[in-house]
Amino acid sequence: MTGWITRHPAALREEDRASLKDVLTRCPELDTAAGHVRDFGEMLTGRLGATLPTWIEAVDASQLPGLTGFALHLRRDLDAVTAGLTLDWSSGSIEGAVNRIKKIKRQLYGRAGFHLLRKMILLQ
């Protein structure tokens, strides 16, 4: 069911689209939440960080408990979230290297010293 809500209606099969429409007409809160989730997804994929304050205001106005809490947390660090939704820069490759090093360190914990750890990191 959640897969139906997060996908764009055009990406669904005809019978799933009819079922989703039926569910959303019966529950206006769910329809509103689905719209907000889709809008946020478009912000993520389209790098539209400038529209974030407008989205947060719309979510606050809807008074949906789960989404308003999420919007509140986004508002706490609005500049960083807006930059993350707008800029092409990413620290993903650095985070991957850090996770790889931590994995090696966990594997060698209690077995060897720093010199072997250094060699394992450099060899992998």
How far do the termini sit from each other?
Answer: 42 Å
- Give the SSE string: HHHHHHHH
Strand percent estimate: under 5%
Instruction: Note the overall shape.
Output: elongated
Rg from Cα: 22 Å
- Rounded average pLDDT: 85
* Content-based structural category: mainly alpha
Q: Report the uncertain regions.
A: none
- Main sheet makeup: none
> Which percent bin holds the helix content?
over 70%
Notes on the structure:
With about 120 residues, this protein is mainly α. Helix content is about 75%, strand content about 0%. The protein is built from eight helices and no strands. It has helices at about 1-5, 15-25, 30-45, 50-60, 65-75, 80-85, 90-110, 115-124. Helix 2 packs across helix 3, helix 3 packs antiparallel against helix 4 and helix 4 packs antiparallel against helix 5. It is elongated. The chain starts with a helix and ends with a helix. It comes from Streptomyces mutomycini. This is Transposase.
